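Recall the central idea of this unit: under ordinary conditions, the amino acid sequence of a chain determines the structure it adopts. In this exercise we apply that idea directly, starting from the sequence alone.
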Amino acid sequence: MPGAIGTAGAALLPWLGVALFGAVVLAIVFARRMLFLVLIPVVVWAIAIAPSLPTPATTSSAAPLTIVSQNVRAHSGGAGASAEELAASGADVIALVELDGDSLGAASEALAERYPHSYAVGTVGVWSRYPIVAAEPLTLGLDWKRALRVAVEGPESEIALYVLHAASVRPGHQDGRDTMLAGLARTVTADPADALVVVGDFNAASTDPAMNALRTGLDWVRPTDGSLGLTWPAAFPLTRIDQVFARGVTVLSSTTVHAGNSDHLATKTVVDG
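Accordingly, the structure predicted from this sequence is:
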């Protein structure tokens, strides 16, 4: 179901499981004859949530490439701290979104020595230990730049990396976000790169109908730490709006980490590089 109802339903989907579990318990205790009727929505929920459930970590003989991404919350003053903590986590590539002028400067200063290759435009930026051999800004249907594409020369191969800061969603106002997600889907589908990763703040839960086109052309990277990978708000995550998609790479692990004072958790993804 597209539009605001689909967006709200996708955000609430993990928590509907809690309500349904309670309904099953009540039916068992007080009205067992109603249990069959209660199990119908349980099955529907299980089918809907299944693509977002965690998956086991894997291994590879190829050299790993660790990519972290975080919305650092503009004007929070925490971009420098986020950059330092993400670098300490062992990241090879750091993508930051919702950057303002001050936060871009703070992150660049914190990362300049250890991450000599960088590219930033609009509200997004990327810093890499490995050479960036191509870079371009992306508008994805909007009038200003909130996304980018770089090609990173990893330890074993070149990987195309997209960094997205999707337009915000407000009640009755999600056209900008939907336009960007549709534009991103068209762009990555046409991208000839053999290996491709997309990270950033999508402002959309993993099962949002606006993500259907992306899910068709790319693999949604599921968490490997046994959680649902919820990222926002950081103090008590209720939904996952910071996403990772991939194509042509083996995902070894995918987790979330705290960094800085942002209201978003960071995503940390290890792929064969």
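The two ends are 37 Å apart (CA to CA).
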